[in-house]
Design brief:
The complex is a heterodimer. Helices cover 79% and strands 0% of the residues of chain A. Chain A is mainly alpha-helical. The radius of gyration of chain A is 24 Å and the shape is globular. In chain B, α9 packs parallel to α10. The longest helix of chain B has 37 residues. The two termini of chain B are 37 Å apart. The chains are: A mainly alpha, B mainly alpha. At the A-B interface, α1, α6, α7, α10 and α11 of A face α4, α5, α9 and α11 of B.
Chain lengths: 325, 301
């Protein structure tokens, strides 16, 4: 079964990538000045020789270097990311608490940017020499050039402070104690501004990419053939044109997952959206190295999962896959 | 993960054949660039910003850390032409001094990422085969590594000095450049003139640096320009999070520290942001202009 072999191969590759991130983490921890025991001792305000030795033993720092290395990678792969020095809780638990918020934010922004971007791109390709295409180009340039944390603050100023349409921060109204449908609506209300901010960077980019790709596809032979057959223009545009034109857009979206996560860190900080980015920001200001390294691993896992998903999406769209089966 | 070679970056075919009128492709590109109004506007804007940052401190002698007015004075107040921040420090002085680390780190980081990306891409595309496959894995690894979080980790472990910040950004920003360079090298090394040079006994190093690289340069230059823009945004983001060097002012830091007072004093956030925005915009316009100038397919339009 080639499908099963491919899934297994994919899974192994993902494991290797995660192990590599863990290896990188380990090397960084060792290259950096000080270690976790020194941090803990520093926080305790000093300790006896005995305690230090005990702590070193507890964290496995007295074992041979190579053994420590493989132990660390093994622990990371089994989901043990250590204990947060600040929260005194397992890092993995802290991260799992925050993952849904980040995934919701990134997924919503991606859906807005891709959905709207593709629609606008098709329109601007259909009327490629109009003012609309020119506006799209300008907006793309503006969207790329504005720092996301700044555009977030400007939107916050306009739509939450000057005209208070949406809340300024957080993910839900803590005081209201809502549940069920009302809670979902409340979260959505809080989500509008952060998701729009993050989507703005990519919206114009996907519009431009869809437009360029559509223009190229619509000039190709098979589209000319489809038209010559007398097919309805709408069918040509969407079935022959868009389906092929979407592929570079999906590829691009997959390549930008890591960048999107970077944007999410900044957006979460601006809107106090309780996701991984905000956790990372707090972890750094508290010098919680275990936590920040754990977040790095978890985010890499998110990017890998996202890449696999875009790959699946790519296969769904690719007309050649349908022709083969 | 499928590696599909669809690039959003510039596509070129320049250098493959000598220009018809016998002029160098560079001169031809300049002719196209010169006629491009938005690209010229970008160039002028970039020049103005760089002069503002470099020459400003010589003309305007106000310490950006010194308290010179009451807090939150709006632009146009006495002594503070662009207003004062939450401590009463001069915003204009901050804008002038704060540009230097931003431009310096951005430029240095872009240079590092271009150096790494072009080297890896060139080796990968030139040798192909097993070397290419191996380097492809490295590129893939850096593509799944969350860039901003990784730089945050490096800076929190090694401290926020200018060099650490620039290297951290450069180390995560190169995969795009490597993919582009690899594609160019793959394409060019199959061309006849490279083959003849190879059969004439040119060494690998000579073929890579003297025979292929010059013809791969146009898209690399365009991409390097855009990389400088992204690096500046990256630096600004890190400073905004408080991860830049806190002993010198920077545009991102100004926004980060003034953020809690957005409601009372919009200018403390808006003005430094505008500075970052205009800088990146200028660079993007120049990059777009270079892309059009180097891209013969677009010339006919």
């Amino acid at each position: 079964m080639p499908l099963i072999r491919e899934i297994v191969g994919r899974f192994l590759l993902a494991l290797i990538l995660i192990a590599s991130v863990a290896a990188l983490n380990f090397m960084l921890l060792h290259a950096a000045p000080g270690d976790i025991v020194e941090t803990i001792v520093g926080e305790m305000g000093g300790a006896t020789e005995e305690t230090v030795r005990e702590l070193r033993h507890q964290f496995g720092l007295d074992r041979p270097f190579v053994e420590q290395f493989f132990l660390y990678i093994g622990r990371t792969l089994t989901g043990d990311l250590g204990i947060s020095a600040y929260y005194n809780r397992p890092v993995a638990d802290l991260i799992l608490d925050r993952v849904p918020a980040t995934v919701l934010l990134v997924f919503t922004s991606l859906a807005i940017a891709l959905g709207l971007g593709v629609i606008l791109g098709v329109i601007s390709a259909r009327f490629s020499r109009s003012w609309f295409a020119a506006v799209v180009n300008v907006v793309a340039l503006l969207g790329f050039s504005a720092p996301v944390f700044w555009s977030g603050l400007l939107l916050l100023l306009m739509f939450a402070i000057i005209v208070p349409l949406v809340p300024t921060s957080g993910m839900y109204d803590v005081a209201a104690d809502l549940s069920g449908w009302a809670f979902a609506v409340d979260v959505l209300h809080h989500l509008i501004l952060p998701a729009t901010t993050l989507a703005l960077i990519y919206l114009a980019l996907y519009t431009r990419l869809t437009r360029a790709s559509m223009l190229e596809v619509m000039n190709s032979d098979y589209v000319r053939t489809a038209r010559a057959k007398g097919l309805h223009e709408g069918k040509v545009l969407f079935k022959h044109g868009l389906r092929n034109a979407l592929m570079p857009v999906v590829t691009m979206a997959g390549l930008q997952l890591s960048g999107m996560l970077a944007g999410a860190v900044l957006v979460e900080t601006v809107f106090t959206w309780p996701g991984l980015g905000l956790l990372a920001y707090d972890a750094i200001s508290r010098r919680d190295n275990q936590l920040i390294l754990g977040i790095l691993v978890a985010s890499a896992v998110l990017v890998i999962v996202g890449t696999i998903l875009t790959d699946l999406l790519y296969r769904l769209i690719d007309p050649r896959v349908g022709a083969r089966s | 993960m499928t590696v599909t070679s669809v690039e959003a970056s510039p596509q070129t075919a320049i250098g493959a054949s000598p220009p018809a009128e016998g002029r160098s492709p560079w001169a031809e590109a300049w002719t196209v660039f010169r006629r491009n109004l938005s690209a010229l506007f970008g160039l002028v804007l970039l020049f103005a910003i760089v002069s503002f940052v470099l020459l400003g401190p010589l003309i305007y002698h106000v310490d950006p850390f010194e308290i010179v007015q009451a807090p939150h004075q709006p632009p146009g107040s006495e002594d503070v032409p662009l207003g004062s921040d939450y401590l009463g420090r001069d915003i204009l002085a901050g804008l002038i001094q704060g540009g230097r680390p931003t431009l310096l780190v951005g430029g240095l980081a872009a240079a590092i990422s271009v150096l790494i990306g072009v080297t890896i891409g060139a080796v990968s595309g030139y040798f192909g085969g097993r070397v290419d496959a191996m380097l492809g894995r490295v590129v893939e690894f850096f593509q799944v590594l969350p860039s901003l979080l990784f730089t945050m980790v490096i800076i929190s472990l090694f401290g926020p000095s200018l060099l650490v910040v620039a290297s951290a950004i450069g180390v995560v920003a190169w995969p795009g450049m490597a993919r582009l360079t690899r594609a160019e090298f793959l394409r060019i090394s199959k061309l006849d003139y490279v083959r003849s040079s190879r059969s004439a006994g040119a060494s690998h190093l000579r073929l890579i640096l003297a025979t292929i690289l010059p013809n791969a340069l146009p898209p690399i230059i365009v991409s390097a320009t855009l990389a400088a823009g992204s690096a500046i945004l990256f630096e600004a983001g890190l400073s905004f999070l408080g991860l830049g060097d806190r002993n010198s002012v920077s545009w991102g830091l100004m926004i980060g520290t003034s953020r809690p007072y957005l409601r009372e004093a919009w200018w403390t956030v808006t003005l430094p942001g505008t500075a970052i925005f205009l800088t990146v915009l200028a660079i993007s316009l120049v990059g777009d202009g270079l892309n059009d100038a180097f891209n013969p397919r677009l010339r006919s339009r």
